[in-house]
Specification:
Elements lengths: L7 E5 L5 H13 L15 H9 L6 E6 L2 E7 L6 E7 L7 E4 L6
Length: about 100
């Protein structure tokens, strides 16, 4: 049996909470009811996630693990709009990475 799951990328409009869009997308990808998933707050603070995505001064991209997926959240450059990518996570991974692509090095 092949346990690999396909990846998926979606855009989240400014009028939709990114945290809710993530739970909905993961549920659709796993073909489960969103209420059957672990709470998102076990992986990341949903209020902080939404605040970061609504802010123009936060990181432009970050990723975290949730429900066996590596979730990447990126600013699209359109005010308040974000892009969510799901990639099948390695089973041993457990990390959150914040990437600030606006800083000069």
């Amino acid at each position: 049996m092949n346990s690999y799951r396909s990846s998926r990328t979606v855009r989240v409009p400014a009028d939709q909470a990114t945290s809710l869009a993530i739970v909905d997308l993961v549920a659709r990808m796993d073909d489960v009811d969103p209420l059957d998933l672990d709470p998102l707050y076990h992986a990341i603070d949903p209020d902080a996630l939404d605040s970061i995505c609504e802010s123009s001064s936060g990181p432009t991209a970050f990723e975290f693990l949730y429900a066996g997926w590596t979730i990447t959240v990126e600013s699209t450059g359109v005010a308040g709009e974000t892009e969510i990518s799901l990639i099948d996570a390695p089973r041993h991974a457990d990390a959150v990475e914040m990437v600030d692509t606006e800083s000069s090095t």
